[in-house]
């Protein structure tokens, strides 16, 4: 019997006017297209033993809304203590970040890419960092 695992969900917290955020959308759309293309190829020719690691398909959710407080807390856990300031301007701890964000939602830096299923997030303008996160999750 053959079961399909549900697709992972990757969310991009996007800012339309930001060149870095616009690039992140392009990078993620390309990665998504590549993943679904390779999934189709895999189904066409049965590779029971995959030799190359390719990202499995994922659903891309692009939003311009700020995260909810719960989502932000999760994102901060995913990025880790030393990267909190890359997510919320001027914050060094989760408590500071949540307080700053509550007072000023604009303190949330975009783009932020979150892979909810695999517990990873990157707040970066670096396309290679985004691709690294996306491609790491193929296993």
TrEMBL record:
<feature type="compositionally biased region" description="Polar residues">
    <location>
        <begin position="31"/>
        <end position="42"/>
    </location>
</feature>
<dbReference type="GO" id="GO:0005739">
    <property type="term" value="C:mitochondrion"/>
</dbReference>
<dbReference type="InterPro" id="IPR036249">
    <property type="entry name" value="Thioredoxin-like_sf"/>
</dbReference>
<dbReference type="Pfam" id="PF07955">
    <property type="entry name" value="DUF1687"/>
</dbReference>
<dbReference type="InterPro" id="IPR012882">
    <property type="entry name" value="Fmp46"/>
</dbReference>
<dbReference type="GO" id="GO:0016491">
    <property type="term" value="F:oxidoreductase activity"/>
</dbReference>
<comment type="function">
    <text>Putative mitochondrial redox protein which could be involved in the reduction of small toxic molecules.</text>
</comment>
<protein>
    <submittedName>
        <fullName>Thioredoxin-like protein</fullName>
    </submittedName>
</protein>
<feature type="region of interest" description="Disordered">
    <location>
        <begin position="31"/>
        <end position="67"/>
    </location>
</feature>
<keyword id="KW-0496">Mitochondrion</keyword>
<keyword id="KW-0809">Transit peptide</keyword>
<keyword id="KW-0560">Oxidoreductase</keyword>
<comment type="similarity">
    <text>Belongs to the FMP46 family.</text>
</comment>
<feature type="compositionally biased region" description="Basic and acidic residues">
    <location>
        <begin position="44"/>
        <end position="58"/>
    </location>
</feature>
């Amino acid at each position: 019997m053959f079961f399909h695992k549900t697709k992972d969900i990757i969310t991009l917290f996007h800012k339309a006017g930001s060149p870095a955020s616009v690039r992140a959308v392009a990078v993620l759309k390309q990665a998504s297209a590549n993943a679904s293309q390779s999934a189709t190829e895999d189904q066409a020719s049965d590779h029971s033993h995959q030799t190359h690691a390719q990202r499995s398909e994922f659903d891309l959710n692009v939003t311009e809304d700020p995260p909810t407080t719960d989502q932000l807390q999760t994102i901060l856990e995913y990025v880790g203590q030393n990267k909190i300031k890359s997510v919320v301007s001027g914050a060094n701890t989760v408590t500071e970040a949540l307080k700053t964000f509550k007072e000023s939602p604009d303190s949330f830096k975009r783009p932020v890419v979150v892979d909810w299923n695999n517990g990873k997030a990157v707040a970066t303008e670096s396309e290679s960092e985004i691709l690294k996160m996306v491609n790491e999750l193929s296993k």
